[in-house]
Design goal:
With 186 residues, the protein is mostly beta strands. It has one domain (2-44, 61-133, 144-180). The chain has two helices and twelve strands. The chain has helices at 74-81, 169-180, and strands at 2-16, 22-24, 33-42, 45-49, 52-57, 60-69, 84-86, 89-91, 101-111, 114-128, 146-152, 161-166. The strands form three sheets. Strands 1, 2, 3, 6, 9, 10, 11 and 12 form an eight-stranded antiparallel β-sheet that branches. It has a two-stranded antiparallel sheet with strand order 4-5. Strands 7-8 form a two-stranded antiparallel ribbon. The relative contact order is 0.26.
């Protein structure tokens, strides 16, 4: 299996019941997908008894996600980071709190010469303020992108991710949209 593409970043605001049942707000595109990196931290506990390993735990602890998009517009950044927008102005305040969201994407894979489409869905993510890097235009043009980083957590029921692979992009998009319970807005 070779990964050959990435598309369809979608996010939606999370509302979580005490039992871990999750519902998500309208699915929205944060921008066109450039890259995505998910790094998972696991618990690593070992119990030795009678001079040998008796028990071990390597369960999910937390994770980080780095989502690079072609252009995270002001509304997207305000929504993901808890900022306010007034007219054409975004105001960042030290007391702003980013909401929990779900983040989904579709990874195109090649398996035995055929394209497959794998939906990767993170159930609970909180993004943080991105670094800002800008460069002047020199002798050649270099495109800049926006990278948003977030912390992956579990829902109260322990779920943190869902994934499924499909034969067609249409099926993958339908599944991803269904996880949010809505069709994405532009």
């Amino acid at each position: 299996m070779a990964k050959i593409g990435l598309e369809n970043f979608l996010y939606g605001i999370l509302t979580e019941a005490q039992d871990g049942t999750a519902t998500y707000g309208e699915a929205k595109k944060p921008g066109k997908a450039v890259s995505c990196s998910v790094s998972i931290s696991n618990n690593d506990a070992k119990l030795y008894a009678d001079d040998s390993l008796a028990e071990s735990d390597t369960s999910f602890q937390s994770g980080t996600v780095s989502m690079e998009v072609d252009n995270a517009d002001m509304t997207t950044q305000a929504t993901l980071l808890g900022h306010t927008v007034s007219g054409d102005e975004m105001v960042r305040n030290a007391n702003d709190t980013a909401p929990y969201v779900a983040l989904g994407r579709i990874v195109t894979k090649m398996i035995n010469g055929a394209s497959k489409y794998k939906v990767e869905f993170l159930c609970k993510v909180k993004f943080s303020e991105p670094s800002q890097e800008n460069t002047t235009k020199g002798e050649s043009v270099e495109f800049g992108t926006t990278t948003l980083e977030g912390i992956v957590s579990t829902l109260a029921n322990g779920d943190w991710s869902k994934t499924q692979t499909f034969d067609t992009l249409t099926e993958a998009k339908a599944y991803l949209n269904g996880l949010f319970g809505s069709t994405p807005s532009a």
